[in-house]
Amino acid sequence: MTPRRVLPENLRYLLNQWDPIGVVDEVDDEYDCLIAPLLSRLAAGGGRAEIGEFLWYELTDHFGLSDPETLGTDRLVAWWAAVGGPSR
User: Fold this and answer.
1) Relative to the CA of 46, which of 63, 70, 75, 80 has its CA 20 to 30 Å away?
2) Which domain of life is it from (predicted)?
3) How many CB atoms lie within 10 A of CB 23?
4) How do residues 45-81 score in pLDDT, each as one tens digit?
C-alpha cells in the first residue's frame, strides 16, 4: 500500500499527464483543485461512474470545456486500485 502522503503527489502527476485542457507545459498546478475531491471520492469507494461524473462536471463547469473527454477516469480508477485504495 502506498503511503498516504504520496497519494496527492501521484495523483497530481496523473492529472498533469492527462492534461485535459492542455496547459501543463505552462502551469504545473492547474489541476490541484481536483486532488482532494478525487482522493475523497476514491477513498469513499467511488467507482468509475462517480469519478467520471465528477470529472465531467469539473471540466465543463470549472475549466470551461464544452465537450470534455473523460479518458482520465479509467486511469485514475486503475491507479487507485493499484495503490491499494487506502481508505480514510
Assistant:
1) 63
2) Bacteria
3) 13
4) 999 999 999 999 999 999 998 888 777 899 999 999 9
CA–CA distance, 75 with 48 (Å, rounded to integer): 10
Looking at residue 70, what is its pLDDT? 73
Q: Which of 82, 76, 86, 78 is nearest to 3 (CA)?
A: 86
Residue at 9: amino acid letter: E
Q: Are 23 and 32 in contact (CB under 8 A)?
A: no
Taking alpha carbons only, the member of 54, 68, 75, 72 closest to residue 21 is 68
**80: closest CA among 18, 49, 38?**
38
Reported as a single tens digit per residue, the pLDDT across 47-57 is: 999 999 999 99
Q: Which three-class secondary structure state does DSSP give residue 44?
A: coil
Q: Note whether 44 and 88 are within 8 A (CB).
A: yes
- Alpha carbon distance 16, 10 (integer Å): 10
